[in-house]
Design brief:
The complex is a heterodimer of chains A (520) and B (108). By secondary structure, chain A is α/β, with parallel strands linked by helices. Chain A is 30% helix and 42% strand. With 108 residues, chain B is of the alpha+beta class. A three-stranded antiparallel β-sheet of chain B has the order 1-3-2. The chains are: A alpha/beta (520), B alpha+beta (108).
């Protein structure tokens, strides 16, 4: 860098960024003079001395600029630095003010919510005191704390102090912490009042029993001798108000209603209530209906025309029931029905459904719960599941249809007409009799037979593996588009018994096994 | 306030316009002519000339030179002439007043 470059560098540093254009003009003027001076034969040092200190030149520039401004300004001139600083501070203040008003608005809203919920808890405590005759200190304390907290925050707002911890805010935070702790401890929850209620039906006045409960319940049926009266007992934790309307008889209909209809229902969580239904031997009701969100039902040893159970979650145990129709609907129940005689319809989304030793038309539907049918006798059976396992064993179902998506289906020792519709789940069949039809997409099919079963199997890409005890009279009629067929049975089309297996791309394997002595 | 004598600054404006009223000059010419009588930081004259142009007391034009590159010439305008007349009359009466002032102070 030569000396002039250094000179202009220093001069440049004296200029504001926004004045760069004017600096360039001035530089051009000075360069013109430098060139003339060089032409006149002056040395670099002489020229620089004559031009003067860059600081002075810049000072002169800004003075002229100010002078020009002063001559043309309407009122006043202010140094640029001050304008920038003022603007910056102004902007900061504006930002601060914006955040403060936002914070104030937020505080205001939160305070309102606090005051509101405080009031709600106080009303709840009052309700418990006057209607349930129960003094609930926790609810009272939560209410008072929230009320104090909300009010303190509101007062703190009115004070308009910018300080984070003014007196009111300290009170507000403390009360909020206290109330919050109590809230988390959940000691304020009202669990109901222990009550023992009983209703006895005189004579044969009642044909219909109907129970509806918002409370978690435990229902049991108990047989009593025929000369006693049909009776219902309720023993548990109820709201005082609810207990007055529990039993209601109208036109041969006994309705048991345990409802929580209250403005405060979010704060009420009753403990389990025991319901016992005493049924005289020989008493046949036309309707027996239970609807509960959460419960355990142990019902048995009685006859009824229609039975309906609607349960959110819990346990259902039906034993020795004779009925025309039984309908059970549940989101997630652990269900066991045994020793029954009825037309059974079950919709159990996620729970286990086990049916044993029963007779009558049966329909079971589930999303992902296990379905297990064992030793049933039915004219028609319908089982539908998308993901739960299906196990049907030792049953005589004249017309059985199984529909599965991803479920594994295990069918063993069945007689009758069996039709399986399957997507991707596995199908395992053992020792079936009667007529078998399978329509399969891509699931694997494994069949193990000692005796002949008249079968027609259609599979897409699913493998079909058929193990058959030696029987000279069986002809396997196999057909595939792209799969491989491997068979131990050499075709004799004239055979009496035909098994037809057809696939698109699934392989077909037919294995001959030795007949076990028991099968002979 | 500044490294440049305020008193001198007003005079530099007057001198520049006075010279330009006679002839168009380029920047270096002005600095040399003025420097002969009034010592100045030569670089500091250009901002003054710039303001004079901005205030329409002067205009500039480029003119080729026999030696070296083209030079920026300053030419006084009518407004510049009027301003110079004002400055001169103010200057004269000012100098007269100051002389008189000193004369009378000395007499006391």
């Amino acid at each position: 860098m030569n000396k002039f470059e250094v000179f202009f560098e220093r001069l440049d540093q004296e200029f504001l960024v926004q004045d760069k254009e004017e600096f360039a003009e001035l530089k051009a003027d000075l360069q013109e003079q430098i060139e003339i001076m060089m032409a006149d034969g002056l040395t670099e040092a002489e020229i620089l001395a004559k031009l003067g200190d860059p600081k002075n030149i810049a000072a002169s520039f800004y003075e002229e600029k100010r002078l020009y401004k002063a001559e043309n300004a309407a009122k006043d001139i202010v140094p640029l630095e001050e304008v920038q600083e003022t603007y910056r501070r102004e902007w900061q203040l504006k930002q601060l003010a914006f955040f403060q008003s936002l914070l104030r608005l937020l505080t205001f809203l939160v305070s309102l919510v606090l005051v509101g919920s405080g009031g709600y808890f106080l009303l709840f405590a009052g309700y418990l005191l006057f209607w349930q005759q129960q003094l609930n200190f926790a609810a009272l304390a939560v209410g008072v704390m929230f009320l104090i907290s909300g009010s303190a925050f509101l007062l703190g707002l009115k004070k308009n102090s910018l300080h984070f911890l003014n007196k009111f805010r300290v009170i507000g935070w403390l009360a909020l912490a206290g109330g919050g702790l109590l809230l988390v401890s959940r000691t304020f929850v009202f669990t109901g009042i222990r009550q023992h209620l009983s209703y006895e039906v005189q004579g044969n006045a009642v044909e219909v029993f109907q129970l509806t409960s918002d409370y978690p319940i435990n229902i049991e049926t108990v047989n009593i001798s025929a000369d006693k009266q049909f009776r219902v007992e309720v023993d548990g934790y109820l709201l005082k108000s609810a207990s007055e309307d529990v039993f209601n008889v109208e036109e041969q209909r006994l309705t048991v209603t345990m409802a929580i209809v209250s403005f405060f229902s979010p704060l009420i969580q009753p403990k389990q209530t025991e319901v016992t239904v005493y049924l005289p031997v020989g008493k046949v009701l036309t309707d027996f209906a239970v609807a509960a969100a959460d419960g355990s039902l142990y019902l048995g040893d009685f006859s009824v025309k229609n039975m309906a159970v609607t349960l959110g979650e819990g346990e259902v145990d039906l034993t020795n029931i004779t009925a025309e129709q039984v309908l059970i609907e549940s989101e997630q129940a652990d269900l066991l029905v045994q020793d029954y005689q009825a037309e059974l319809t079950i919709k159990n989304q996620h729970g286990r459904s086990i049916l044993k030793e029963g007779a009558g038309r049966v329909a079971v539907r589930s999303t992902d719960g296990l379905i297990n049918l064992h030793m049933l006798e039915a004219p028609v059976g319908e089982v539908v599941s998308s993901q739960g396992k299906i196990i049907i064993t030792d049953s005589q179902i004249a017309d059985l249809s199984v529909a599965a998506d991803e479920s594994t289906s295990v069918l063993e020792r069945l007689s009758g007409t069996t039709a399986v519709e399957n997507q991707t789940g596995k199908i395992v069949l053992n020792e079936l009799a009667g007529v078998l039809t399978i329509n399969n997409h891509s699931g694997t099919i494994i069949v193990n037979q000692s005796q002949f079963v008249e079968a027609q199997v259609n599979s897409g890409s699913g493998l079909v593996k058929w193990v058959q005890a030696d029987d000279a009279n069986i002809f396997f009629d196999t057909e595939t588009q792209t799969g491989t067929i491997k068979s131990d049975f050499i075709g004799e089309n004239s055979a009496v018994n035909h098994v037809k297996i057809k696939t698109d791309s699934g392989d077909i394997t037919i294995i001959k096994k030795e007949a076990t002595p028991a099968d002979q | 306030m500044s490294q440049i004598n305020q008193f001198k600054k007003g005079v530099l404006e007057l001198c520049s316009l006075y010279l330009l009223a006679k002839n168009d000059c380029y920047g270096y010419e002005l600095t040399q002519k003025i420097n002969r009588y009034v010592a100045l930081t030569e670089g500091a004259l250009y901002p003054i000339l710039r303001r004079l142009v901005k205030e329409d007391y002067c205009t500039t034009y480029l003119k080729e030179s026999s030696e070296g590159p083209a030079r920026k010439y300053y030419q006084i305008t009518e407004a510049g002439q009027a301003h110079l007349a004002d400055l001169l009359s103010e200057w004269k009466s000012f100098v007269k007043s100051v002389d008189l002032f000193m004369l009378e102070v000395d007499d006391e």
